[in-house]
Amino acid sequence: MHPSDPLKNILYIDLTEKEYWVEEKPELFQNYLGGTGVAIKLLIEECPEGCDPLSKDNPIILAVGPLTGLYPFASKTVAMFKSPHTGNLGESHCGGRSAIAIRMAGYGAIVIRGSSDTPIYLAIHGDKVYFRDASALWGMQNSFTVGRIIRENEPNAGFRSIMRIGGAGEKLVTYACVTSETYRHFGRLGLGAVFGSKKLKAIVVSGKRSLPIEDKKEYRRLYDEIYHKAIESEVMKKYHDLGTAENIINLNKLGALPTRNLLYSQLEDADGISGETLAGQYLGRRLACSHCPVGCIHIAALREPYEDEPYFYKTTMISYDYELIYALGSMLGVTNAHDLLRLIDKIETYAIDAMSTGVTLAWATEAQRQGVISERETNGLKLEWGETEEYLKAIEFIIKQPNEFYQAMARGVEYASTKYGGKEYALAYGGNEMPGYHTGPAAHIGFLIGARHSHLDNAGYSVDQKILIEKQLSPEELVEKLIEEESWRQILSSLVVCFFARGIYQLGVVEDTLKVIGFNIDNLEELGREILMEKYRFKTREGFHLKNLRIPRRILETPTAIGEIDENYIHRSIEYAEETLIGAKR
Q1: Last residue of a domain, one of 185, 206, 227
Q2: Contact 449/482 with Cβ under 8 angstroms?
């Protein structure tokens, strides 16, 4: 690490005392790179064992990496915290401008402690931190409005990032998210609720600085190599043209698209919500995160008449991607793009995680159809597949929580099904709602054993697709493949490199980029495994054990793209993962 590199600086902020200070920890970044590696070490250090996730003791860690501001795609910010949704490791990644803003402000990480007694937002402008009164913003449900007001009142337009919560975070919905730059999010596991519990409405970060480069000639060569690989790649072209929404048609053809709470794995009329339909009929513009040449963020323009002025129209710009389409489209039986976009817009307004919301609503729909709950619990709503108006009202009730049922829904499908029944079709892994891949056993085992229980942990779905054309793996072979992939992803997320660029940032390229900026890591693959084990060290400290995981019955009942899943195969895989990930640490 170059001695003048600001990455070594950690900004500590105490919300209780309204104080801040900076500590230099170059060895932490030299040993763990940044992002996920640094964040998990700080979380273990800062978070007291067994603390309540919604108490002042739960820290918020924001970390960036050594490639941020220097190379394409190194544009994610990693947030770590104890999740109010699962009671365990909370880790969420956000693109946009947040990582660049933090690095340009002069920090490699930000640690937020304590809680405020009155609503505030933080304004971090370079080496100055301001504790702004947010009383006028508190109670604003619309995260877009919050961002617009802060934009008009803070300096450094063009260099800043505005991370804020909406109504869901204030109401402590355990899967509330934090919105950044309007269209990017810390989406999963409830960072928005942690903000809300601290009376923290938003964080603004800005800064202007240059970053040191030891070998400028080699740096330019590497930058050009990565840039041209990106713009000439067919994979990256897919992300630009249709984005992840392209997956709808492909997964549907495979019989791998979760539909109507996974009662089915194919959706009739899937064309109505496909990436092709959205791009052809609704696409308004594309956006890119900072230092990204691809532009995978697809924004739909939804044109609707005003309720009281039928001849006057408003146009709403709505970001969409595969996960949102799956959760609020196929899982709810919604096959009309116009209705889908209205649901996404409602989610975005309140700043609430789309996957958790959609899966929870899908469970509630089936539970009402089965007679497990009635209109008394749903506050008069008759939830039915494809009934968008009822779902729009249900989302509002999750935020407002008018009765015990919606209070339970605001804690997710695991909690709600424990309280009301229907657990056999409650689709959650370690308390986190199911991502949109029913490709085969590797996907579901990947969700179960992944540190975040996310489709981004180890890409089990891609292993399933290889099984289609190669051979069935033993449970031990499968788990080793998943752990190997997840270990390497710890390196990418410590560099805060977008996973879409994982085909470009392979081992040799990563080693070269680090050498140019003065990082010398002997064995990156070993370090990735070590960071993954650190995550599991935190998880087990907080009471997590793989052997206690619940396997949703529904995944065994609905055939996948490669046939039915063998329950015994899942159990054997979990046992081996327990021995490998947790037993090895004892």
Answers
A1: 206
A2: yes
pTM, two decimal places: 0.97
What are 90's strand-pairing partners?
81
Question: Residue 387: inside a domain, yes or no?
Answer: yes
Please give the tally of structural domains in the chain.
Answer: 3
Residues 439 and 391 in one domain: no
470 with 344, same domain?
no
Among candidate residues 420, 441, 469, the one where a domain is terminated: 420
How would you class 506 by CB atoms within 10 Å of its CB: exposed for 0-12, middle for 13-18, buried for 19 or more? exposed
Cα 509 to Cα 206: distance, rounded to the nearest angstrom: 30
- Burial class, 38, CB count within 10 angstroms (exposed 0-12 / middle 13-18 / buried 19+): buried
What is the H or E stretch that residue 130 is in? strand 128-133
Structural domain boundaries enclosing 564: 432-585
CATH number at residue 263: 1.10.569.10
Q: Are 376 and 311 contacting, i.e. CB atoms less than 8 angstroms apart? A: no
- Distance in angstroms (rounded) separating the CA atoms of residues 255 and 249: 10
Residues 98 and 120 in one domain: yes
- Please report whether residue 1 resides in a domain: no
Q: Are residues 452 and 525 in the same domain?
A: yes
Q: Is residue 271 assigned to a domain?
A: yes
Looking up residue 182, the CATH number of its domain turns out to be 3.60.9.10
> Can you tell me the distance from the alpha carbon of 507 to that of 486, in angstroms, rounded to the nearest whole number?
14
Dihedral of the CA atoms 345, 350, 353, 355 (nearest 10)?
A: -40
pLDDT by 10s per residue, the chain, length 586:
777 788 999 999 999 999 999 999 999 999 999 999 999 999 999 999 999 999 999 999 999 999 999 999 999 999 999 999 999 999 999 999 999 999 999 999 999 999 999 999 999 999 999 999 999 999 999 999 999 999 999 999 888 999 999 999 999 999 999 999 999 999 999 999 999 999 999 999 999 998 988 889 999 999 999 999 999 988 888 899 999 999 999 999 999 999 999 999 999 999 999 999 999 999 999 999 999 999 999 999 999 988 788 778 899 999 999 999 999 999 999 999 999 999 999 999 999 999 999 999 999 999 999 999 999 999 999 999 999 999 999 999 999 999 999 999 999 999 999 999 999 999 999 999 999 999 999 999 999 999 999 999 999 999 998 876 667 899 999 999 999 999 999 999 999 999 999 999 999 999 999 999 988 888 999 999 999 999 999 999 999 999 999 999 999 999 998 899 999 999 999 999 999 998 754 4
